Amino acid sequence: MRNRFQTFHTVFSILGSLFIVLGVFLIFPLAIVILSGELQRGFTTVVAFLLPSIIAFSFGIVCRFLFHPGTPDRLQAALACALGWLGFSAIGALPFVWAIHASYLNGFFEAVSGFTTTGITMFTGLDQMPKSILFWRSLTQWIGGLGILTFFLAVTYRGGSAHMLFGAESHKTAMVERPVPGLSNTLKIIWAIYTGFTIFIAVGLSLAGMTIFDSICHSFTALSTGGFSPHDASVGYYQLTHPHFVWIEYILIVGMLMGGTNFLIHYRILNGNWKALYDGTEMKYWWTFIIIFVIVIFAEKFIKLDTFSMISLNKFGPWSVIERTFRVVFFQVVAIITTTGFTTQDIGSPFFGQLAKQLFLVMMVIGGCVGSTGGGLKVLRVSILVKMIRREIFRLRTPRRSISTIIVDDKPIDVNEVYRVGGLFFAWVALLVFGGCITALFSRLSAYQSLSGMFSALGNIGPCYIPVTIMGQLNPVIKIGYIFGMLAGRLEILPVLLLFSRKAWRA
User: Fold this and answer.
1) First-to-final CA distance of the chain
2) Angle between helices 183-207 and 148-156 (to 10 degrees)
3) Tens digit of each residue's pLDDT (9 = 90 or more) over 167-198
4) Which residues pair with 412 in a beta bridge?
5) Rounded CA separation 93/104 (Å)
6) Strand, helix or coil at 64?
7) Is the overall model pTM greater than 0.85, yes or no?
8) Which of 65, 122, 290, 298 could anchor a disulfide with 472, C-beta 3.0 to 4.6 Å?
């Protein structure tokens, strides 16, 4: 019989290794402290990163010393995954507390939002913040893009246990084949593509005229589909300050699409198979969703011409207004459906009509592709839900004994996976309703605003219909609810729920 304490030993031994990795990451912003001249204003930011790094290292070493490593089973891997994300956020919040004097709850919220690549922010006045803090915000999203465990496994590969750990964090890729045999090779390829694309986006933004610091930060948060920006106005900042902002926006559109697309598709394209862009069920749904949303929102804008649009048409001419409107709509549709959350125009502003605002909520639920850095329910799962409806209609008009297996890309979907998709969708709806009710109960926000907050948190989006200036002043109960929603959305609910199960810890 397995030792009743084996779960604790296995889980906290893994956590020890993870916290050592976090200690290393916390040292990186110190380079920005030196390069940006923050040392001239004192040692506040140095201490703000050095002390958390020491804490992470110390906690990691203690865990490795006190707890005996073991090969985790599926349950232990899920527990380690959920606690790892909580622990990273708990220590990752300390730089915000010590450097800019944020409350711990707001700092913890920001760290969770970063590591889960959600992008909801508690902070305003970003343009005046220390660059090291802005860099740390972006770095948390880059780390969280593919996952803290996948990075850890890519550099430390733990043999048989790696498969369980990878599955606990990356079950969103469960229906996707690996690009090459062997988990170690798969992880190295994924991270090589991820790093290469990050550099590609950063270089493109720099060539478009963005500062090196801003291009690095935005490349981190575009590919990770996180959406943190060094500026309060997000990407809209460059419309006011930069002559080549159009190029910047289109480069970021490409970067967001890269992040929201299955990385197996990227691997196939890099190997010369361009048909991968459209030959699968998920990719067909993916492009169809984007095209339909852009066309509908663009059409609504001109069907309901407002006063601003009429003035713009008279002042700049039709073609200029059409191009600008298309670019804003295209950018915002991609930003929302990939769950990146950059904005060139506030999605709650009068620029977007009521239909557009409803469709943005739909996009928050759909999210990116399976095997991408995007959040949401995932496009492939939406396609399975559609096929489930078609199957039920088929069964109504055919004999009961008729075989009605769900087929995706010429492969039958296992019935257990179908059940899991249905269960996950129900859990999503339940959490959306719960979050909306909590927000409405503990605030004076409208029903529309209250519901959008949990849509944003659970879908790991960022933008919602709650103004940023109000977000930091929300009741702590709402913030805690959103923190739970962000973690549940990133880890797909089940690992987070396991933390509250006594039987899971006694197993």
Assistant:
1) 11
2) 120
3) 556 544 444 565 655 667 778 888 899 999 99
4) 407
5) 7
6) helix
7) yes
8) 122
